[in-house]
């Protein structure tokens, strides 16, 4: 994680480069996209792939909805493609009305213009990914400070890959099943222990009714939150879907490897340790993103700011980050 001071320094260095007319195709894309405070005022488009692309016409998720609260606002990552915003609003409402889940605590979506981030997340670049906490929204509205500091709760027993029965409730299974049930959802990433818990849940269904489980994919981490990934909106050129998950519910044998020791073993030391220090991979540059991302980073903001570089002061730190609207009942 970058500290505030490091982030500030990065912003200043980037600004200095910008002032010197030094920004170009070779600039690390994360410096440009990670410091863009507002969306590109262009038609909404998810451009590229989940882990290499950008977002135009990004929309903010409201800080407060009747059935959700957005968290960690200072990161300015509550932006998404309109289909993602609609999905979150609908999931929150449907789950609350069914009595399954009081409301969502929503973590990172994407940056205002998507793209690579200064810290965290390889994906979340095209406005179709969202992290949702495995903790129900509290009854009260959280203050901005609480939204920064409130810690997340793991559903695993500490230091194990086993579900903690003191934390896990059937409602966790129900919100995950509901989240997977919408046709626009491509995948949901959860810890393998959570997938296993869902496979064994008697509410999972049988036969075809079980196939929502196909979208629930085991992955490292993801025991404090789950990660929803939507498919590219239909008719969009330049947004690239992942291959669909393998057929079947992904339980049993398909999950066995994840539940064994192999995925969690420390990496084996190389037979002949090299004396050279490992080379750090170079950060992805603007030139390595889809071409349309250059237009996205150069486009004006909706408030008329002529370009990303015009209002330099507003680009430093979270102080002037525009807040999305509060939203009345939907
Ligand atoms: Zn995520």
Comma- or semicolon-separated keywords:
330 residues; alpha+beta; Muramoyl-pentapeptide Carboxypeptidase, domain 2; four-stranded mixed beta sheet; three-stranded mixed beta sheet; globular; binds zinc ion
Write up what this structure looks like.
The structure is a single chain. With 330 residues, the chain is of the alpha+beta class. The protein has one domain: Muramoyl-pentapeptide Carboxypeptidase, domain 2. Helices cover 23% and strands 13% of the residues. 37% of the residues are buried. Zinc ion (ZN) is lined by residues 121, 124, 129, 131, 227.
Q: List the strand order in the largest sheet.
A: 8-11-9-10
- How many structural domains? 1
Radius of gyration, in Å, reads 21 Å
Helix-strand string = HHEEEEEEHEEHHEHEEHH
Question: What is the CA-CA span between the terminal residues?
Answer: 35 Å
Which assembly state applies to the chains in this document?
Answer: single chain
Low-confidence stretches: 309-320
| Global outline | globular
**Fold-level CATH name:** Muramoyl-pentapeptide Carboxypeptidase, domain 2
Report the count of strand segments: 11
Bound ligands, each once: zinc ion
Helix % is: 10-25%
Q: What is the count of helical runs?
A: 8
Q: Under the CATH scheme, which architecture would be assigned?
A: 2-Layer Sandwich
Structural class: alpha+beta
């Amino acid at each position: 994680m970058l500290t505030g001071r490091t982030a500030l320094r990065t912003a200043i260095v980037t600004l200095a480069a910008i002032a010197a007319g030094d920004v170009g195709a070779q600039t690390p894309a994360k410096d440009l996209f990670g410091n863009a405070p507002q969306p590109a005022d262009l038609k909404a488009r998810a451009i590229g792939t989940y882990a290499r692309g950008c977002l135009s016409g990004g929309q903010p998720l409201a800080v407060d909805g009747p059935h959700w609260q957005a968290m960690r606002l200072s990161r300015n990552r509550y932006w998404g493609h309109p289909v993602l915003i609609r999905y979150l609003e609908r999931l929150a409402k449907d789950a609350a009305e069914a009595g399954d889940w009081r409301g969502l605590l929503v973590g990172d979506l994407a940056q205002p213009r998507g793209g690579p981030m200064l810290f965290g997340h390889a994906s979340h670049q095209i406005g179709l990914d969202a992290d949702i906490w495995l903790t129900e929204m509290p009854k009260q509205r959280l203050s901005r400070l609480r939204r920064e500091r409130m810690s997340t709760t793991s559903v695993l027993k500490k230091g194990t890959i086993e579900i903690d029965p003191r934390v896990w409730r059937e409602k966790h299974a129900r919100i995950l099943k509901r989240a997977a049930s919408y046709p626009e959802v491509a995948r949901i990433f959860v810890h393998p222990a959570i997938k296993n818990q869902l496979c064994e849940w008697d509410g999972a269904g049988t036969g075809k009714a079980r196939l929502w489980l196909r979208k629930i994919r085991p992955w490292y981490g993801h025991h404090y939150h789950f990660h929803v990934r939507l498919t590219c909106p239909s008719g969009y050129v330049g947004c690239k879907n992942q291959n669909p998950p393998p057929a079947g519910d992904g339980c049993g044998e398909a999950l066995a490897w994840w539940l064994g020791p192999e995925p969690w073993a420390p990496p084996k030391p190389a037979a002949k340790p090299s004396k050279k220090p490992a080379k750090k991979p170079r950060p992805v540059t603007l030139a390595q993103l889809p071409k349309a991302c250059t237009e996205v980073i150069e486009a004006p903001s909706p408030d008329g700011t002529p370009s990303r570089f015009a209002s330099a002061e507003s680009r430093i730190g979270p102080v002037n980050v525009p807040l999305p609207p509060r939203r009345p009942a939907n």
